[in-house]
Specification:
The chain contains four helices and five strands, in the order αββαβαββα. It is of the alpha+beta class. A five-stranded mixed β-sheet has the order 2-1-3-4-5. A hairpin with a 4-residue loop joins β1 and β2. The chain binds tetrahydrodeoxyuridine (THU). Tetrahydrodeoxyuridine binds next to α2.
């Protein structure tokens, strides 16, 4: 897939990605917030990387599920992701935090971000919708 193409949210691979995000949420280390988040990213080579949020007694050191999944992918050699899926234990889909938006922008400027929850609702966004006018590698 060309990096400039955005994967449609209805693409069948998105279902597998949402399943991976939901499964990953079960492994969250979230004893402080009790908010178990799972994320999964689809690399441009087809691999899926999933992760959960990891908290710390020093609260500010918490690492979100989205960044953990992205960093796992990048550490395995991935440089571009085409989709990011998120599962939160909520009644409505939740969008990624600002820090995660910036990191998604770095490795998936054309990625679709899809969010699911404990209910049936889903939402999807482009990075431009989540982070308009983003600072990026080309600004350096
Ligand atoms: N969290 C995520 O992992 N991803 C998000 O998109 C929102 C927040 C985590 C951080 C923290 O462990 C818990 O959810 C509550 O903020």
């Amino acid at each position: 897939m060309k990096p400039s193409m955005t994967l449609p949210a209805a693409d069948p691979r998105i279902e597998a990605l949402l399943d991976a995000a939901r499964s990953a949420s079960a492994l969250a280390y979230a004893p402080y917030s009790r908010f178990h988040v799972g994320a999964a990213v689809l690399a441009d080579d087809g691999r899926i990387f999933a992760a959960a949020n990891v908290e710390n007694a020093s609260y500010g050191l918490t690492s979100c599920a989205e960044r953990n999944a992205l960093f796992a992918a990048v550490s395995a050699g991935v440089r571009n992701v085409t989709a990011v899926a998120i599962h939160t234990p909520t009644g409505a889909p939740v969008s990624p935090c600002g820090a995660c938006r910036q990191v998604i922008r770095e490795f998936g400027p054309d990625a679709v971000v899809v969010s699911c929850c404990d209910g049936d609702a889903r939402r999807s966004w482009t990075i431009d919708e989540l982070l308009p006018g983003a600072f990026g590698p080309h600004d350096l």
